[in-house]
Amino acid sequence: MKNKFLPALFVILLLAPLALTGEERDDGTFNLLVPIAFYTSDTGFAGGGLFQRLYPSGLNFSIAGFYTQKNQINIFYNLDYFTPEFPWWIQYDGSGRYYPESFYGLGEATDLDDEEGFTTLGLDQSLSAYRRVFDGLYIGPAFRYKINEFVDPDEGGLIDRNLVAGSEGYQILYSGIGLGTGRELIPLTPALGIFYEAIGSYATTIRGDRAEDFYLKSDFRLFYDLAGSPLGLRGHQFALQHLSLVSGGELPFLELPSVGGGNLLRGYAADRFRDAVAMALQADYRFPIYGKLKGALFGALGNVAPDISSLGEGGLKAAWGGGLRFQTGPTPDTSFRLDVGWTGEDFGVYFLFGEAY
To answer: Where does the signal peptide begin and end (predicted)?
Structure first.
């Protein structure tokens, strides 16, 4: 544990003073420029930067990039327009990466010893335009285009021998319909709010092993503010997420639903389990410590399966842990978090920007 935890502790102590670079201008725009350093068990040390500009009109722009100790390079950019007064929520996201990573095989019974390494060269572009159909509910088209090539696979592994779909590289286009609450948190009571998003997509493989597939996503989140509860605990919050991912046909292996990593089943390696179906339930209890410093306790259950009827036959994977948050901007989304998660097979340390959900 010492080898994983101490680097993350060093990073949070180093960057907490540097993170206070948010600035609200006279015209109402808010600029956030953050030098980012983070550590996870999957990346090692990493460094980079984030620039985010929030306009009072509802237009938001951000760009970020980082380089990790494991020679991983990732660049992200985002442009979206959202305001409760405007009937549309428009969002564009893009990323490019050179990313050495791991594959453990397909299914819930894979072992850590099954790990094989490979490097992804990828581009990912997505565009959605959701229209508000009534208060708090949006619906509209969603598109996503991805290119992935794989280099340097471990010799003799499944990817090297082309034994999994898409292992020779692919281009894929997702076309579908999205339904959700936008970026709003819909209040059910003064203390209770929900967020929901569902996307159904038809996947067309432009270059690769398969031509016709589909992908369904359902993401439900509930947030209960204990300040508005009978307990009256100001700054305390209970958060719950249920995520379902279902695919059909035979998508390229990197497109298959997965669990594990810094946001889902924290404690397991990134994308530790992959298959055609994945479901997970996780809960967080978030509480104030002092000023902008907050704490969290979390737990999660989930698994993958080749189809919905088989889900749960192999039992459930469990993960649990706790962490710290340091808020640098006007919302919890602009927070650094340090999480330590445990599982039955290993543990993971994550020092990242933004909440898990």
So the answer is: 1-21
